[in-house]
Amino acid sequence: MSNLAIIPARGGSKRIPRKNIRPFLGKPIIAYVIDTALQSGLFSDVMVSTDDEEIAAIARQYGASIPFLRTTETAGDFATTAEVLSEVLSQYEQQGKRFDYACCLYPTAPFVTPKLLSRAFSTLTEKQFDTVYPVQQFSFPIQRAIRLSDSKVQWFQPEHALTRSQDLEPAYHDAGQFYFFSVNAFRQTNRLITDNSGGIVISEMAAHDIDNETDWQVAEFKFKLMDNVK
C-alpha cells in the first residue's frame, strides 16, 4: 500500500501575504504540517505543490519533496483544490508512480498531529470511505440561527425557537485541515467530498481557520495553549 501526502501551497495568497511560509511562533507555518506528515510514517512521499521557488526551498529545508512545480493553470486565484490534486496525481502517473491513498494537507493547519492522521487513515480504510476529514461541532445550535433584515431578526427555523439546546441534534462543519482519500475514488469522481465521505470529530481547540491577522494571533494563542496541555 502506497500513500502520498500533498501539501498545496501557492505563492499568491492575498489576504495574508506569503501566508504559507509566514513565521508561526518562530517557524514557517508550512513546516509544522511537513513535520507532522513525516512523523506520522504513513506516507511514501510528502510533497509540496507550489508555483513559488521560495516556498519550494523552505519546503525542501524541512524535508518535503518538490518533484515538479505547479503549472500556471492551477496557481491562480480560481483553481480548485481538486484541480491541484488531479494535476499532482497526473504528474506522478506520467513518472510511472501510482498511489492507493493520498492526503491533501493544508499548509496553514499547524494543529494537525500524527495521531490524528493515523486515526483518519484507519477510519478511511476500515470503513471503506472515499474520503475522511476532521469536523468540529458548531458551538451554538444551528437550528436556532437567526437572520437580520434591516435590523429586524427572524428565525431560520421558528419551530425550534423554544426548543432546549440539549434536545437539538448536534451539527458539525469541516475543520479545514486535511482530506485523506482513496485515489481510485477521487479519480472516478474528481471530488473530495462524496456521498461516501466520513468525518472524525475534533475539539474546538484543535483547529483554527486563518484568514486574517486576528485569526493568526488567535491561532498562535491556541497553539501555545494546546502545546502546554500536552
UniProtKB/TrEMBL annotation:
GO molecular function, one term: N-acylneuraminate cytidylyltransferase activity
CDD domains xrefs: CMP-NeuAc_Synthase
Domain of life: Bacteria
Pfam families from the UniProt entry: CTP_transf_3
Keywords: Nucleotidyltransferase, Transferase
Enzyme class: transferase
Keyword Transferase among record annotations: yes
Enzyme Commission number: 2.7.7.81
InterPro entries: CMP-NeuNAc_synthase (IPR050793), Cytidylyl_trans (IPR003329), Nucleotide-diphossugar_trans (IPR029044), PseF (IPR020039)
NCBIfam families tied to this protein: PseF
Full protein name: Pseudaminic acid cytidylyltransferase
Species the sequence originates in: Spirosoma foliorum
High-level lineage: Bacteria, Pseudomonadati, Bacteroidota, Cytophagia, Cytophagales
Gene designation: pseF
